[in-house]
Amino acid sequence: CGARSEESTSDNGSGSEGKGESEDKIVIKFSHVVAENTPKGKAAAMFEELAEKYTDDKVDVQVFPNSQLYNDDEVLAAVQQNNVQMAAPATSKVSKLFPEWQIFDLPFAFLNTEAVQEAMESEEIGGKLFSMLKSEQLLGLSMWDNGFKQMTLDEKPLIKPSDFEGQKFRVMSSKVLESQFEAVGANPTPMPFSEVYSALEQGVIDGQENTLSNIYSKKFHEVQNYMTISNHGYLGYAVITNEEFWNGLPDDIRKNVKKALDETTQWVRENGQRLNEENLEKIKEDGTLEEIYELSDEEKQAWIDAMNPVYKEFEDEIGKDLIDAVKALRD
Ligand code: LMR
User: Fold this and answer.
1) Which CA distances in Å does 271 have to 79, 107, 160, 225?
2) How far is residue 279's CA from residue 276's CA, in Å, rounded to a whole number?
3) Is the distance from the beta carbon of residue 70 to the nearest atom of ligand 1 less than 6 Å?
4) What are residue 61's phi and psi, to 5 degrees?
5) Where would you tag: which of 116, 209, 266, 318 has the fewest CB atoms within 10 A of its CB?
6) Ligand 1 within 6 A of CB of 173
7) Closest Cα partner for 162 from 299, 271, 283?
8) Does ligand 1 lie within 6 Å of residue 214's CB atom?
9) pTM score, two decimals?
């Protein structure tokens, strides 16, 4: 899809106004920020293939990975304006418009991927979060998994909460993530994903948190010395579209595009974790990290305790009902 990037300057990619081979087709531009060999990158490619197949090529899905078209700060507005028709921002980034979506950023909120999926399927969590998108011309179609985040740092292994003291960490744009790092005495720096590698390389930041697939595919492990397997937070995606665009699709097209999406979602659910595990092995094989440290249960409990004040701090902003509903999943 690199060859298609010359269309990236077009500010109206919607409907049937695509160019060249897309002349009579309905163009769906899909913008994302990660590499192609990640859960989201692979899912986007699979969605492209299936959507085109199920609509007998009446739809032309154009995937733009690696922040080629828009970075984190721009993509929500691009979907709202129908400059791209679909995107799958991390839930943390949706929280810029809807702070309630920070629920997924609360440290140690989910025990496993199944709990996240259960949350998204429930009316009181997923239903509530998806329904609010409509007030901003957005429609939530699906939730895609990536996986749990791990910590990396340049200077030393992160084992005790006090190891965070004074270290500068990149965060996605989410106040909860900032607060999580402040709770352990670190300095959070919000930054788009596309800038993380060079910020690490140049020492603008000391560390970052991300999934193994994002760490591996963007080579963060080559510019960091230590990684802690902490599984402290979850990274997943809201697959969103422009509401007017979606509702304006012919019924049969919409049905088949949704079918392609549902199959893709199922695939990411079944394979996201595996891809992250494979990436851990590749990170080990590369041998660029000095140490990969796995927190013991006791050490993890010290992190949980240190980060716990974040829940109280965001009770009003996220909503006590939502927080209680997520906590209930643990019981
Ligand atoms: C990040 O900014 O670290 C992630 O949201 C990137 C992504 O989309 O997985």
Assistant:
1) 27, 24, 32, 28
2) 5
3) no
4) -90, 130
5) 266
6) no
7) 299
8) yes
9) 0.92
Measured CA to CA, the distance from residue 255 to residue 252 in angstroms comes to: 5
- What is the rounded distance in angstroms from the CA atom of residue 8 to the CA atom of residue 219? 26
Length of the chain: 331
146 Cα to the center of ligand 1, angstroms: 9
| Cβ of residue 180 lying under 6 Å from some atom of ligand 1 | no
Distance CA 186, CA 182 (A): 5
- Among the listed ranges 6-20, 165-179, 184-198, 206-220, which one has the minimum average pLDDT value? 6-20
Cβ 62 vs Cβ 32: under 8 Å:
no
On whether the CB atoms of residues 278 and 156 are closer than 8 A, the answer is no
| 257-278 per-residue burial string, b: 16 or more CB within 10 A, e: under 16 | bbebbeebbebbbebbbebbee
How large is the average pLDDT for residues 231-252? 97
Using most ligand atoms within 8 A of CB, pick from 214, 218, 234, 279 the residue to mutate for ligand 1: 214
Element containing residue 62 per DSSP (H, E)? strand 59-64
State residue 8's pLDDT score. 38
Which residue is closest in CA terms to ligand 1's atom 1? 193
Among 197, 210, 219, 279, the mutation site with the greatest number of ligand 1 atoms within 8 A of its Cβ is: 210
Number of Cβ within a 10 Å radius of residue 209:
26
Confidence of residue 229 (pLDDT cuts 50, 70, 90): very high
Residue-level pLDDT at 21: 54
What is the ipTM for the molecules in this complex?
A: 0.98
Give the SS3 label for residue 120: helix
Pairwise CA distance, residues 236 & 144, whole Å: 6
Our answer on whether the CB atom of 191 is closer than 6 Å to any ligand 1 atom is no
- Residue 14 corresponds to which tokens in the numbers above? 């919607």
Q: CB of 31 closer than 6 A to ligand 1?
A: no
**DSSP 8-class letter at 140:** E
Going by pLDDT thresholds of 50, 70 and 90, the confidence category of residue 22 is low
Ligand 1 close to Cβ of residue 90 (< 6 A): yes
